[in-house]
Design goal:
mainly alpha, 5 helices, single chain, about 0% strand
Amino acid sequence: MIMFITRCIFLHLYTKQRINNSSYAQREYLIVGGLFYVVLGGVLSTICLYMYRFGGSQNYSKTIMLIIATLGFVKIISSIVGLVRSRNLKNPLIMYLKSLNVIDGLLAIVITQYAILSTQHAPNASTSTGIFGLVIGLIILLIGVFILIKNIKNKDLTI
């Protein structure tokens, strides 16, 4: 839900920027993006910590597991390709939206891992997936903090 709201906000900002044909407030967009990264990383870390501590395994059929795995890998591959293709645009809004797709792909890989381990009836499926998701959540959170620190250092910034 947080990713959906974030995408809607940044698509709206990008549409306004494109209609007005201006590059106003680029740094402010990066700060808002950094804040959303911190929130998204914090929520993902909390959910995965809960999964690590209290999670139980689900029973998926092999067909469902293959569908989840296929979707997960397609999402991560397409998001990386989109991010690489957009690197020359030099627009923080586009780069942020594309990086959200990469985060979405990483979340799909976490879900894929859980589905595969649950299908194989691994005893530690929720524990290992919780740790993996927690690490990804903390990395997202640290990236958000880095973006915030880097962009707030500029004294000419008005929010």
